[in-house]
Amino acid sequence: MISSEPDAPLGALLDDARTALSGVPQEALGREKTGRWRAPRIVRVGSAWHVGVLLVAGDAVYATAEVLRAAAPVRRGYAAESARARAERRAEASRGGFDDGETVHVGWTPIDLDAVAAGGSSGPLALVDGVPSVRWSAAGSLMPLSAYLDDRIALLRSASL
After folding, report:
1. What are phi and psi of 157, to 5 degrees?
2. At what angle do helices 10-21 and 145-159 cross, to 10 degrees?
3. Kind and range of the H or E run holding 84
4. Which of 72-76, 118-122, 131-135 has the lowest mean pLDDT?
5. Among 16, 26, 73, 132, which is least packed by CB within 10 angstroms?
6. Distance (Å, rounded) from C-alpha 62 to C-alpha 157?
């Protein structure tokens, strides 16, 4: 369980989250790579726990962006151009060395925890009246980070049983 104090320091909340997440599988972090002689691909650059709008790594926290599953390229007819584009992104991950079906996060951005702790905001995190808070959706309001982490980690732990 994450600290029951809603205004616990941001670093302490994240350390508690990492402890609570031990034993839960992490997901891959990928970065797009283009080369002169090779097709575009997505390469592995690390891993993190996917906790809602956050990616919690051992030493950093990132805001989520695109989530995809790697898949080998195949030739098919597509009814929509968007389906073709999604298939190409999955193939880029496969070309980058990810196993078929592996979840890959791409386009994530680092969250400046020092800026948040100093009273500002970064990505979905903000300090509101001294309480570390998270915006859990683009249209959603801010909620205390401790409650958000408790809820999301409980879901992750129950799914990994």
Report:
1. -65, -40
2. 10
3. helix 81-95
4. 72-76
5. 73
6. 20
